[in-house]
Amino acid sequence: MGVAVLLLRALLLLAAAVAASVPAEPNRLMQIVVLVRHGDRSAMRSLPIDPHSELLDQVGPAQLLEQGVRQLFRLGVWLRRRYDNQSLLPRRFNTSTMEVRSTDTDRTLMSAQALLAGLFPGQCAGDGTSMPVCYPVPVHSKPTQTDQLLKMSSPCAAYQHRWRQFRARPNGPFKSAVREFRWLAELARNRTGWPGPDDCPIKQLWRVEDSVSSWQRMGLAMPSWVNGTVREGLAELKRRKFLWKYEEPQLHSARMGLLVARLLGGMRLRLEGKTAKVYSAHDSTVAAFLHAFQVFNGLRPPMAACIIAELYASGEFRLVYKNSTEQPAVHQLSIPFCPPPCFLPQLESEMRRRGVWAETAQAMCGGGGDLAEDSQQDEPLGAVYNFILVIVLSVSWLPLLY
Prior knowledge:
The structure is a single chain. The chain is an alpha/beta fold. It folds into two domains: 24-154 and 248-401, Phosphoglycerate mutase-like (Rossmann fold), CATH 3.40.50; 157-244, no CATH class. The protein has helices at 2-21, 53-59, 66-83, 106-119, 157-168, 173-180, 182-192, 201-217, 228-244, 249-271, 283-292, 344-353, 358-365, 369-377; strands spanning 29-37, 100-102, 124-125, 133-134, 139-140, 277-281, 306-312, 316-322, 331-333, 342-343, 387-392. The strands form three sheets. Strands 1, 6, 7, 8, 9, 10 and 11 form a seven-stranded mixed sheet that branches. Helix 10 packs across helix 11 (283-292) and helix 10 (249-271) runs antiparallel to helix 13 (358-365). Mean pLDDT is 78; it is low at 1-23, 368-385 and 391-402.
């Protein structure tokens, strides 16, 4: 009997060794990294003259709304359906192989939990279609002042200097927009009561747009002065914001160098036999990421927008963009400097050549926070994980992220 047991164990060990030596099928999905924007939220702040200020006082500024919770839950359900047969996702969250990281804001931390409820139905009590009651998943974050990985407003002197230079160009796009939308600035100043004169009316208009778009999403009545022309002007200025702030290489290199380096470095180790990841973040994180790969479509990333980076056993790298939780369609993105099939070594080389790498970000933003940790340990993102979720406001499944 003892001999039979030993023989069985030997056969199992042999089978495991043979299986490990067999190369993976080229089209086998090895890893995914998901970067997600938070769901619908309330306005960031009240305007001086604000018809809905009492409601905002009740809800709280910049808070995730019920609609936002449902958006992220539906996205989690969709991710589960898309990757359920790829042997990447367990039925329950596993702390030994996964970690969730978010930026340190209420709306992103809550968005991460809502997405995870849809992604891991095995942890929840419900029928799988409505919001369930779930066993909580640990979500990690870093203070904004040190979160260079996901928070685009974290301190970076070189970025701020270049951004000020961009705004100051006499005939540049920013100054041109100031002249083009002077009529809107005067109207909004008079109707909202913001103090004037203002040397940066565009920034004030971005704040007005935030309130107006929030009222619209919540189905609230618009003030009489907010007509179709005003809404179009505000939306156009917000659209340009995401073009201006990250379009130039020096701008997106400072903000995305660290995340790109960790993403691609982790994928390289995954191919070498180490072992997905989730980040929860903001529209600015999603926009900067798309700019870094030269695939930004010129439109502000909507609520619950989702970017998925897929790594295949052949070394092929693919980017997928889902910009609606209402529609099932996704967009396969073609990277201009690494056309399909885009293989990881080529992409990593191109990113380094273009300066979108950790060293560039560290040189521009200085040491500290994620940048300092990255330079000390050089630990890539997702080296030991099959699935990584990053919720823009920020989620990741990996201790290496922080």
